[in-house]
Amino acid sequence: MISFYQENTGLLEEAVQEEKTLSIYNLIVDGGLGGQIIIAILVVLLAVALYIYFERFFAIKSASKVDKNFMNQIKDYVSNGKLESANSLCKSTDTPTARLIGKGISRIGKPLDDINTAIETAGKLEIYQLEKNVSVLATIAGVAPMIGFLGTVIGMIVAIHAIANAGGQIDIKMLSDGLYTAMTTTVAGLIVGIIAYITYNHLVVRTNKVVYQMEAKSVEFLDLLNEPV
């Protein structure tokens, strides 16, 4: 009786140990070739998404830094007719706002509508630069879960194929490859999609903040030109 209990306890411990040693690597390896290809594609998409996020994040962060005294200096230079000094200040300040103001300063002397149009055109170019490759994140956010679901379909086909060839004798081990493929690719696709979606929205919020900042400074500059001499 004692030996039977010890034997069953030993088997239970072995089962628990086997369950604990199941890792993500094992899930991917046991998922078959189809699952491994899907996972590899998702890993590449994740790497691309993270690269774009961090590259754009630091670029937008740099673009949002504007010296608080910048507009005060511009006002002083323009009011005193020192347009060359104002233009030099804009060129030495590497921010979208400074480039917009510099574009406006280079048009001083022309009608206000022309200055406004020049600033708006320059602003569109700056926004385009800020949003460069951000749309790729949105694409990854939508495509990654679908690729994961494609892996799910492939896994279910593999499982059904195993059942069809089992001749009425279904063994769970025969279905494991298909089930692993179905589950792991779905989870991986959702994880990549969620990460891409969150990073995309974060970049959109930060980009909008810079755009509002550019608009505010541009209006401030145009108001300066509208002030009576």
Would you kindly provide a brief summary of this structure?
This protein has 229 residues and is mostly helical.
Structure description:
With 229 residues, this protein is mainly α. The chain folds into two domains: 124 residues; 61 residues, no CATH class. It is built from nine helices and no strands. Helix 4 runs parallel beside helix 9.
Q: Secondary-structure element sequence?
A: HHHHHHHHH
Question: In percent, how much strand structure appears in the residues?
Answer: under 5%
Over all CA atoms, what is the radius of gyration?
A: 30 Å
Count of DSSP-assigned helices: 9
Tell me about the biggest sheet?
Answer: none
Can you tell me the number of structural domains? 2
Helix share of residues? over 70%
In round numbers, the mean pLDDT is: 79
User: Terminal Cα separation, in Å?
Assistant: 107 Å
Number of strands: 0
Shape: rod-shaped
Q: Detail the poorly predicted runs.
A: 4-20
Structural class: mainly alpha
List the helices and strands and how they pair.
Elements: H1 2-20, H2 24-30, H3 32-63, H4 70-79, H5 83-92, H6 96-106, H7 112-130, H8 134-164, H9 172-226
Main location: membrane
Keywords: Cell membrane, Membrane, Protein transport, Transmembrane, Transmembrane helix, Transport
Pfam families: MotA_ExbB
Q: Which descriptors would you attach to this protein?
A:
single chain; 229 residues; mainly alpha; 2 domains; 9 helices; rod-shaped; transport; Biopolymer transporter ExbB; protein transport
